[in-house]
Amino acid sequence: MISLDRLQSLLEVARRGSITQAAHALGLTQPALTRRLQQLEEELGAELLVRGRKGATLTELGRLVVDQGSQVLERYARLREDVGAHLRLEAGTVRVGGGATAVSLLLPEIIRGFRREHPDVVFELKEAGSREVERSVAREELEVGVVTLPTQAPELQVAPLRGDRIVLVAARGHPLAGEARVPAEALAGAPLIGFEAGSAIRNLIDGALEQRGVEMQVIMELRSIQSILRMVQLDLGLAFVSALGVDENDPRIAVVPVAGLRIQRTLAVITKAGRPLSLAAGAFLKHLRH
Questions:
Q1: Average of pLDDT values for 202-219?
Q2: Could you give the C-alpha distances from 280 to 60, 96, 115, 225, in angstroms and in order?
Q3: What is the three-class DSSP state of 281?
Q4: 269 within 8 A of 145, measured Cβ to Cβ
Q5: Looking only at Cα atoms, what is the longest distance across the chain?
Q6: Alpha-carbon span 188 to 247, nearest angstrom
Q7: How many Å apart are CA 29 and CA 22, to the nearest integer?
Q8: Which domains can be identified in the chain, with CATH numbers?
Q9: Residue 24 is inside which H or E element, if any?
Q10: 213-258 tens-digit pLDDT
Q11: Helix (H, G, I), strand (E, B) or coil at 173
């Protein structure tokens, strides 16, 4: 492999036409620079300079090395600049994914706070169910994920992030909206606007209702919390959503307390075990945990 110092030495001699002047510019003694040039010629197996009384002149192959070598040094300089920008978090991409609650309600404020400090870092944000996010992190398509516990992929590193309470919501004009506390049995047969079947949060809600022996009528399945809340506002049915997504000042929607029905989940941060994160993703992960 060609030494960049030796290549730089040849370019300096070519610019100045003198080994003595090039040595002075590089902060080397003339014998040290001469030795560098000889080592470069030995590496390439070709004579690069013709030394004479009036200075040093490039051979034909020497001109070829200078021409292509200058491109190599320029690319290396750009590489160092790019690496430095990543080290200073003046560049980089964070690939993060999560479910509807994480992407819609949790991550936006966290990302905004992070980008205040590092405005040049770019985010690739994927919204998907917890199991799909797990698979994406395991396949290294994402570096960081926010999912509902428990996880299913053994190759993940998991760290609990925060609790999340799931509440029942109804349109303000719904008969249950004015009740101080509703018995779980009152929900039997009621129209339910649910999350997608098979999603972690849907399984959690279905399991809690099944434990109470309550079967609701699922009339619609959606992924987006905003879409679910909009359907509830239009009084098309009831819904269980994260408390993070409910605006207590919204005049169109109300939380309905249900006696004996407490649905709680834990959101966790996942990464690929044994896989170092990019500098940007590592910094974001620390920010996320705090």
A1: 95
A2: 46, 11, 11, 29
A3: helix
A4: yes
A5: 104
A6: 26
A7: 10
A8: 4-85 (1.10.10.10), 93-161+267-289 (3.40.190.10), 165-265 (3.40.190.10)
A9: helix 19-26
A10: 999 999 999 988 999 999 999 999 999 999 998 988 899 999 999 9
A11: coil
The pair of three-digit structure tokens given for residue 39, joined into one six-digit string? 């080592």
CA distances, 105 to each of 3, 121, 176, 245 (Å): 52, 21, 26, 6
> In this model, does residue 274 exceed pLDDT 90?
yes
pLDDT tens-digit map of 42-78: 999 999 999 877 778 899 999 999 999 999 988 988 8
Residue with tokens 């370019």: 11
Torsion over CA: 209, 262, 290, 113 (sign): positive
Query: Which residues make Cβ contacts (< 8 Å) with residue 268, sequence separation at least 6?
Result: 146, 147, 148, 149, 151, 158, 159, 160, 161
d(CA 131, CA 103): 15
Please list, in sequence order, all residues whose beta carbon lies within 8 angstroms of the beta carbon of residue 175, skipping any fewer than 6 positions away.
none
- Which of 121, 153, 117 minimizes the C-alpha distance to 135? 153
Q: Per the structure block, which two tokens stand in for 133?
A: 């996010």
